[in-house]
Amino acid sequence: MNHLLITGLPGVGKTTLLQRALEQLKNVPATGFVTEEVRQSGDRVGFDVVTLTGGRAPLARVGTGGGRSRPCVGRYAVDLESFERVALSAMASAPSGGVLVIDEIGKMELLSAPFQRSVRAAFAGGAAVIVATVPVARGRQPALLAELRSRPDIRLLEVTRQNREALVQTVVDFVLKRLGNGGGAVPD
After folding, report:
1. DSSP string spanning 149-162?
2. Nearest alpha-carbon partner for 146 in 125, 120, 122, 168
3. In the chain, count of helices (H) and strands (E)?
């Protein structure tokens, strides 16, 4: 198994788990992005895509997004142009012998055909260890998620509120072992 898919219910802490593992892997070459909630007055109003190098762009916001017609997922209008500009660029620079982080391969992101092509290309390329988050499989799932889950080189890791802290080390060890660092100790 060369790649890791982290799954769990919405709000369980998949992104938090990933960010904590990345803190411990700070000396490992990595690229990609995480998805962060955007809040105003305590209410979630959207999501941003944030690259590991600090780039940021809107992924989705509550409402229609300034009168322009955008695809919606629930109450969120998805800004595909903004997402693709930032996420695809971050994915294109995956380091050979490093880690590619994709948070997440979910409903909003899957609205982008170029994103789907980039995900497939990344998994087919094999130059980097991929650590990605995906929603829990319920019923019929999108074709790309079914493809990824059925790959023989995938380890699926389910996160719960009870196990997410313990899984940080599991993710770190997985990455280090795949990169030839044996696991357990983070290189300085």
Report:
1. HH-TTEEEEE--TT
2. 120
3. 5, 9
Site of tokens 């092509």? 117
Any residues with CB less than 8 A from the CB of 185 and at least 6 apart, and which? 176
Q: Which two tokens stand for residue 28?
A: 């490992």
DSSP state of 185: S
Pairwise CA distance, residues 31 & 54, whole Å: 11
- Return the closest-CA partner of residue 99 out of 55, 139, 129, 144: 129
SS (H, E, C) 34-52: EEEEEEECCEEEEEEEEEC
Give the confidence band of 162 by pLDDT, cuts at 50, 70, 90.
Answer: very high
Cβ contact 175:131 at 8 Å: yes
Neighbouring-strand partners of residue 56: 50
pLDDT digits (tens, 9 = 90+) for 97-137: 899 999 999 999 999 999 999 999 999 987 789 999 999 98
H helices of 33-163, in order, are 80-92, 113-125, 143-150
